Amino acid sequence: MSQLHATHGETVHQTHRLLFEELRALRAALRSPSSDLSEKLEETGALLREHFALKEEGGYLASVLEVQPQMGRAVRRLMDERGQILRQLDEVLDEARRGYMAREEFRQKVRDWVANVRRHEARENCLVQDTYGLDLSAED
């Protein structure tokens, strides 16, 4: 199927898969004390922002509420988490630009951010799976 004819859901799934690939690459870069994380963080952050925007554009979580309105609290919590994750990203990007990349404290902050993104995506997937009975797991 050509990318031009891909459904919105397929596009979200593709960015989801790419995001997890970027997160794995970022984690690998963290293992090398000499690696410059700035560019890798920028790439991962740009993909994450695109991924979140695609989900919002297509009403990814809003569709959950159409099927199960009682899930409003869980949907709001996930939407709030997106904002927190993006603020954390901005913080680590700012620290990277200031040259803190070699500091272990900075690297731990990046590891924590990666873990937060992964947990958030897992919670979103579980909510959608529970709502629609789908298997949305990304290869990890």
Q: Assign an overall shape.
A: elongated
In whole angstroms, the N-to-C terminal distance is 24 Å
What number is the mean pLDDT?
85
Q: Give the total of beta strands.
A: 0
> What structural category arises from helix and sheet content?
mainly alpha
**Uncertain regions spanning at least 5 consecutive residues:** 1-6
Beta-strand percent range: under 5%
- Using only C-alpha atoms, the radius of gyration works out to 16 Å
Order of helices and strands: HHHHH
Q: How do the strands and helices of this protein lay out in sequence?
A:
Blueprint: H1 8-30, H2 37-57, H3 62-67, H4 72-97, H5 104-132
Helix pairs in contact: 1-2, 1-5, 2-4, 4-5
Give structural notes.
It contains five helices and no strands. The chain is mainly α and 140 residues long. The chain is elongated and about 50 Å long. Residues 1-6 have low confidence and may be disordered.
Keywords:
mainly alpha, disordered N terminus, 140 residues, 5 helices, 75% helix, single chain
Summarize the structure.
The protein has one domain (3-132). Helices cover 75% and strands 0% of the residues.
